[in-house]
TrEMBL record:
This is Peptide/nickel transport system permease protein. GO terms for cellular component: plasma membrane. GO terms for molecular function: dipeptide transmembrane transporter activity. Pfam families: BPD_transp_1, BPD_transp_1_N. The keyword Plastid does not apply.
Length: 311
């Protein structure tokens, strides 16, 4: 892999992070004074001025921005208004819970989506194919909050077989992981099916079938690798959304992760925490996109060749 490719992707990633940091910094401060929401209405003006000076909110906006960037370069993400501790520590304490939920749903949705998409493509027009298509439409169109509430009503309140909220055992993970994974599994199944159908109709696949190559060999050796590029795009987006995609589900199931923390921090105007989470989400998306680009070049060397010709 050429150094120019890595340099270009790194510069694009840094630019994305810079734009994300700038956008959220400006928007949060233009929305109003966070101290007015954090402090009681009857707080004396001198107390408000004291906290405004303490958090640097008394300085002009450009100066606040430059000081914030300087702090980021030194690993200082600011202090949480609510927790009275470094914002980075507050966010990092929630990462294990979010990663547990996100990775579990990612693995489940990937396995179900890939298998369902491949089987549907191999049995095109059958009842299995129609069932996979229906599942894909259901998963893509069903709002996660509605599915989560419906599962709570059935499994927690009616049948009482699963806990409705919190994090304490494997049983607490079942409903949030399923709710988060249904939409992903539907999208992966749909893209896998479409890509597999396109590959199965290629001349080399028909030739392999005419030569009597076993179905498993044709599918695993020839069809799946050539159909992987569109699927890798979906998987990359899913991986990049491990943090941002859990906001609604964590709120519905009171899962103590970053998503729930973001909702709380936005409601309380905890600027440093919100900014730190946005940076983390942007960084995750940048890394995921970089991984997808690398996977493209590994799966299809022609992409690398095209890039060299273009340069």
């Amino acid at each position: 892999m050429s150094p120019g490719f890595l340099t270009l992707k790194l510069l694009r990633g840094l630019l994305t992070l810079f734009l994300a940091v700038t956008f959220v910094f400006v928007i949060l401060r233009l929305a109003g004074d966070p101290l007015r929401l954090m402090l009681p209405d009857d707080t004396p003006p001198d107390v408000i001025d004291h906290y405004r000076q303490l958090y640097g909110l008394d300085r002009p906006l450009p100066e606040q921005y430059l000081r914030y960037l300087q702090g980021l370069m030194q690993g200082d993400f600011g202090y949480s208004f609510r927790d009275r501790q470094p914002a980075l520590d507050t966010v990092l304490s929630r990462i294990p819970a979010t990663l547990l939920l996100g990775l579990t749903s990612f693995v489940v949705s990937t396995l179900i989506g890939l298998v369902a998409g491949i089987v549907a493509a191999l049995r095109r027009g059958s009842l299995v194919d129609q069932a996979v298509i229906s599942f894909s439409i259901f998963g893509h169109s069903m709002p996660s909050f509605f599915l989560g509430i419906l599962m709570i009503l059935l499994f927690a309140m009616t049948w009482r077989i699963l806990p409705s909220a919190g994090m304490g055992s494997a049983a607490h993970l079942v409903m949030p992981a399923i709710t988060l994974g249904v939409g992903g599994a539907g999208a992966i199944a749909r893209f896998t099916r479409s890509s597999m159908l396109e590959v199965l109709n290629q001349p080399y696949m028909k030739t392999a079938r005419a030569k009597g190559v076993p179905v498993a060999t044709r599918v695993l050796r020839d069809a799946v690798p050539n159909a992987a590029i569109p699927v890798v795009t979906v998987l990359g987006l899913r991986m990049g959304g491990l943090i941002s995609g859990t906001v609604v589900v964590e709120t519905v199931f009171a899962w103590p992760g970053i998503g729930q923390l973001l909702v709380t921090a936005v409601g309380q105007r905890d600027l440093a925490v919100v900014q730190t989470i946005v940076i983390l989400v942007a960084l995750t998306m940048v890394v995921a996109n970089f991984a997808v680009d690398v996977a493209y070049r590994w799966l299809d060397p022609r992409i690398a060749g095209a890039g060299k010709e273009a340069t």
